[in-house]
Amino acid sequence: MSRISLVAGNWKMNRTAAEARELVSTMSAKLREIANVEKVVCPPFIAIPALAALLEGSGIGLGAQNLHWEAKGAFTGEVSTDMIKEFCQYVIIGHSERRAYFGETDESVNRKLHAAMKAGLTPIVCVGETLDQYESGKTAEVVRRQISAGLAGIDSAAAARIVVAYEPVWAIGTGKASSGENANHVHQDVIRPALAELLGAENAQAIRILYGGSVTASNAAEFFAYPDIDGALVGGASLKPDEFVAITKAAVRS
Ligand code: 13P
To answer: I want to staple 116 with a disulfide (CB 3.0 to 4.6 A). Which of 13, 86, 121, 159 is the partner?
Structure first.
């Protein structure tokens, strides 16, 4: 299998620009030494230009946490793909916190994904079921719908660039990570088949599927031991330099 692992840190609404510079400075030297893993940090928008300058030539990528699908205009408070592209290579789309608190839907995810693809950004599309859905056995149904509606109409020629992050909502920020076995099952038996149906078997094999939800330095290796887990989208632990470096090291495929 030739998929190179990807580890992305989603800082959410944490760190000022000055704090972001400090955080990156404490870990960039160690991160850049780790070969054969794509490394990405996704700070709040306002810290992005400062980090872009700091990370130039480091091999560490920069990602935004959201985007607006329109190119420009009267959309107060929004940020377009051109603005993101000036500094970033990646963008997170459809994070469960945006779905839960900011009205993100599969339809808006789809519009944002089309905009990101058109701009040449690497989208990290988040999917995952809530605790209720998990407990009532609806994981496969929910995740399948999020994939088929969220990725609808994507040109299969460029689709291998897409990254999917499976983040069960019940595992985010709770300290209760999914087991590696359960995450791999969803990746292998739900997400890849849904991707294959939509974008073809070859794309489904090429697309990286990350796991996210309470990933730490202590449990990371368990996830990365599974063949269908191609990396991690890390929240809380990405704000701790030693943890994030350790998680990234664990993602190197042997
Ligand atoms: P935690 O790692 O803090 O659980 O957050 C996961 C997440 O939401 C990453 O996008």
So the answer is: 121
Q: To test the ligand 1 pocket, which listed residue (6, 163, 234, 247) has its Cβ within 8 A of the most ligand atoms?
A: 234
| The pLDDT of residue 254 | 64
**Domains of the chain and any CATH numbers:** 5-250 (3.20.20.70)
Of all atoms in ligand 1, which is nearest to the CA of residue 216?
2
User: Residue 80 has what pLDDT?
Assistant: 98
pTM: predicted TM-score of the whole model, two decimal places: 0.98
The backbone torsions φ and ψ at residue 209, rounded to the nearest 5 degrees and listed phi first, read -115, 115
Question: 145 vs 87, 131, 151, 214, CA distance in Å?
Answer: 32, 17, 10, 24
Concerning whether 95 is annotated as a catalytic residue, the answer is yes
98: alpha, beta or left? (left if phi > 0; alpha if psi -120 to 50): alpha
